Amino acid sequence: MSAPCPVARAKKERAVEAKATFRDITPWIPRVGEQVANVLINRALCDQSVITHDAPLPPGIGIAVPHAIPPMHDLIDFLTETRDRGGSDLHIMAGAPPAARVYGTLQPLGEAPLTPDQCKDLIFGILTERQRAALESEWEVDFALHVDGVGRFRANAHYARRHAEAAFRYIPERIPELTELGHGEVVEDLCALRQGLVLVTGMTGMGKTTTLAAMAKRIADQRSCVIVTIEDPIEYELRYATQWQVRPGMPGGEFADLIRASMRHDPDYIIIGEMRDADTVETSLKAAESGHTVISTIHADTALQTFERLRSLMPSERERSSTYTLAQQVKCILNQRLVRTLCQGCAHKEEAGKVLKEHELKLFDLAPEARVRRHNTSGCDLCNRTGISGRTLLLDALLITLGPAHRNEIYEALIGNVNNVVNEEGVVVHTRREGLIDLVLSGLVDPKAAISYLEQ
Fold first, then answer.
1. How many CB atoms lie within 10 A of CB 418?
2. Is there a domain that residue 446 lies in?
């Protein structure tokens, strides 16, 4: 990170870390509790803030750009408030106030809508000349930045309806432990694998990248090894790993190119930010087949759908051979969803029989007289009048414990009916329903919300 501007006078408050409370549940999800945002509150109160673009990015990014104009201060305030609220994203768009996504819900940061000119000033004020040119010519640019005293952000700026817009994803500096994320001993044990493929799947914003970073931390903590990460863009800074930035469109800069190059560096673990195309999928499978532990992400709604997504990316002429390699190498699929947890300060209790129908009671193993916590839509001061205190992990997972000699059944199921995978001996399944039962019984999730999660 570049040195702060000499005229900047940062007055930093002490970092305050909010700690979540947990309790034991299962080997998959051993700890759930009221999810309090695990963010370090380190607010910068200064006359001039410094923004630096992170070094491991494409050429042209990596320049310290000090700003002191009013729009710049406004953006720093918005980014700071997003972080302080426990938000994951900040959205800047014309015709609406700046908005932070907090626990999956957009919250406006003020009342006045931004004009197109204000949006452009806010966005262009943080871009390098190269990035501005890319935005003007391509109508979109991805970048990462560090705001001194606030934190790191992954960002995308683009044009929509001829107006500049941007989204900023907050990247906490501290990498959480797997248990803090809600993962249990099964996932911790995956970090000791010496060979094979582990996939963390789910939709956008479901914590896949954070899980990958936490797994890398766990790996480095428990053994001396070589870890290579391949990302676009680099998000968490992993001092114990070699981090490679993907450079789309540049010779040798694609995911698959870097995976092939990484195998010449004698890695124990190759962590791939995302599987986006056929070349990346095939190269990742070859890396696992050649004796490495490969950990990656892919967009999928369920653990089983992950197989279908992977096969849809395979070239038709090599689909069977690639599917065979997949069946041989896959060790575990963790499909993640983050569900909102009730504020324990204002949630009220009702008898389950007054809330749920008979078949719904059976779904959650509830007696009609059992008391369940319900969402208080009016909220309280603790939850900023939302009735929601955070989000917690909901897993849909497959653990395949079969040895190589018994993997042909997995291959046959993938070629025939993927739903049969769960029926094979040696396949351990953890369903969303199992996770939701515990979350409802522990009072963290409203049973009606749990029903909607199952139907999605």
1. 15
2. yes
Spatial CB neighbours of 128, under 8 Å, sequence gap ≥ 6: 53, 60, 61, 63, 65
**Looking at the whole model, is its pTM more than 0.85?**
no
Residues 148 and 188 in one domain: no
- How far is Cα of residue 4 from the mean position of the Cα atoms in its chain? 29
Q: Is 174 helix (H, G, I), strand (E, B) or coil?
A: coil
Do 164 and 6 meet the contact criterion of CB atoms below 8 Å apart? no
The rounded distance, in Å, linking the Cα atoms of 105 and 89 is 10
Compute the average pLDDT of residues 201-223. Answer: 94
**Structural domains in the chain (count):** 2
**Last residue in a domain, options 150, 171, 192:** 171
243 and 121 together in one domain: no
pLDDT bracket for residue 178 (50, 70, 90): very high
Residues 118 and 225 in one domain: no
Q: How far apart are CA 455 and CA 255, in angstroms?
A: 35
What is the 8-class DSSP label of residue 222?
H
Q: Is the same domain home to 167 and 235?
A: no
Write b or e for each residue in 202-230: b if 16 or more Cβ atoms lie within 10 A of its Cβ, otherwise e: beeebbbbbbbbbbbbbbbeeeeeebbbb
Give a yes or no: residue 5 inside a domain: no
Residues 196 and 161 placed together within one structural domain of the fold: no
Domain of 330 in residue numbering reads as 178-340+387-455
DSSP H helices in 264-318 = 278-289, 303-313
Last residue of a domain, one of 125, 150, 171: 171
Pull the structure tokens for residue 392. Answer: 């917690």
Q: What is the CATH number of the domain that holds 295?
A: 3.40.50.300
C-alpha 152/C-alpha 161 separation (Å) is: 28
- Residue 18 has what pLDDT? 29
DSSP per position, 386-451: SSEEEEEEEEEEEEE---GGG-HHHHHHHHS-GGGGGGSTTEEEE-HHHHHHHHHHTTSS-HHHHH
Whether the per-residue pLDDT at 295 is higher than 60: the answer is yes
pLDDT score for 28: 53
DSSP structure string for 22-62: -B---SSS--B-------EE--EE-SSEEEE--SSSSTT--
